[in-house]
Write a structure and sequence with these properties.
This protein has helices spanning 14-31, 48-58, 73-81, 101-111, 128-144, 161-167, 177-184, 207-221, 224-254, 260-294; strands spanning 4-10, 35-41, 62-66, 88-91, 116-121, 153-160, 188-193. The protein is α/β, with parallel strands linked by helices. The chain folds into 2 domains: 4-222 and 297-305, Alpha-Beta Complex (Spore Coat Polysaccharide Biosynthesis Protein SpsA, Chain A), CATH 3.90.550.10; 224-294. A 7-stranded mixed β-sheet has the order 3-2-1-4-6-5-7, with helices on both faces. Helix 2 links the parallel strand 2 and strand 3. Helix 1 (14-31) packs parallel to helix 2. The chain starts with a strand and ends in a 20-residue tail after the last helix. The mean pLDDT is 91. Bound molecules: uridine-5'-diphosphate (UDP) and magnesium ion. The site of uridine-5'-diphosphate has 17 residues, from strand 1 and helix 3. Uridine-5'-diphosphate (UDP) binds next to strand 1 and helix 3.
């Protein structure tokens, strides 16, 4: 029988844990008895850990990991994923903004043969600022990221254990999990849902943490920032050349006299352009070092056929 793993990072979620647990129990009663619920306490300052311990004492399917301090949502999620043993792994938030009911649909899709099922939010009840920064951010990411990272999905998703196995091979330190899962490939699909408000407590994602996550997305999956030097360089050189040509033309044909400072300004402007180009070249090398240092696998195999046992195709 298939086993299901739920991974739930929790940061100051004392009021939500019990409710989430109850809901998942009810839900899974219909689907399977073979499941585990892994909570990762991400350095909470409230009674989260005590509540988790109580739960775990009464129900062996509930497991918890207590991190030594607040490492952030992506790190906490990684900790949970590292210890999962299910055939299908569902990651979700603790605040019931990822409604457990949606899981039923996700499991259905998984049984149809999809290795990754993303839950995609239909609406955003966030405030004006958060809503529009999110829209523009996803546009930017869509345009420049090296892999196609789906829009409007966070970390509410189901992955097959084979995807998890490959994810385990991605050892990078700054983790943007939704991008990493997208990078892995595999057959994926979406389940749409309306995202409700957080049930109890306050959002642990401060602006600071959100910005860091957004930066990780851009920096880890796009080399655009490094290419800026190229654009600036070309811009300065082209503009400088136009100015210089005009000044030469003007002096030769109209006998206009330009002061030395004007000649110098234009020449120095162009020299800046050359410097930008050099910085860009440097950037390309730094980018390659960065890519190498992530030590990602070169390819990911979905299936293989007819190989002898002793040939080790990973
Ligand atoms: N979370 C965490 N560590 C943090 C911040 C948040 O583990 O430093 C957890 C939190 O308990 C919740 C999930 O990550 O389960 C999403 O956090 P939150 O609800 O604050 O984010 P939002 O819904 O505002 O994006
Ligand atoms: Mg939330």
């Amino acid at each position: 029988m298939e086993k299901y793993s739920f991974v739930v990072p929790a940061y100051n979620e004392e009021k939500n844990i019990g409710i989430l647990y109850d809901k998942l129990c009810n839900l899974m009663a219909e689907i399977s008895q073979n499941w585990e619920l892994i909570f990762v306490n991400d350095g909470s300052r409230d009674r989260t850990l005590d509540i988790l311990k109580d739960l775990a004492k009464n129900d062996k399917r509930v497991k918890y990991i207590d991190l030594s301090r607040n490492f952030g949502h992506q790190a906490a999620l990684t900790a949970g994923l590292d210890v999962c043993t299910g055939d299908a792994i569902i990651s979700m938030d603790c605040d019931l903004q990822d409604p457990p009911e949606v899981v039923v649909k996700m499991i259905k899709k998984w049984k149809e043969g999809y290795a990754i099922v993303y839950a995609r939010r239909q609406n955003r009840q966030d405030n004006f600022l958060k809503k529009y920064t999110a829209i523009w951010y996803y546009k930017l990411l869509d345009r420049f990221a090296s892999v196609n990272i789906p829009r409007n999905v966070a970390d509410f998703r189901l992955i097959d254990s084979k995807v998890l196995g490959k994810l385990g091979g991605m050892k990078e330190q700054s983790r943007y999990l939704r991008g990493m899962v997208a990078w892995l490939g595999f057959k994926y699909t979406f389940v749409d849902f309306d995202r409700p408000e957080r049930l109890h407590g306050e959002a642990g994602y401060t602006w600071e943490k959100s910005i860091k996550l957004a930066m990780d997305g851009i920096m880890n999956f796009s080399m655009l920032p490094l290419k800026l030097g190229f654009l600036l360089g070309v811009f300065a050189i082209v503009l400088g050349t136009i100015f210089l040509s005009y000044m030469i033309f003007d002096s030769v044909f109209h006998n206009t006299r330009y002061e030395l400072i004007k000649w110098l300004t234009v020449v120095i402007f162009m020299a800046f352009g050359v410097q930008f180009i050099l910085i860009w070249i440097l950037g390309e090398y730094v980018g390659r070092i960065y890519e190498e240092s992530k030590d990602r696998p070169v390819y990911i195999i979905n299936e293989k056929g007819n190989f002898d046992e002793d040939i080790d195709v990973k």
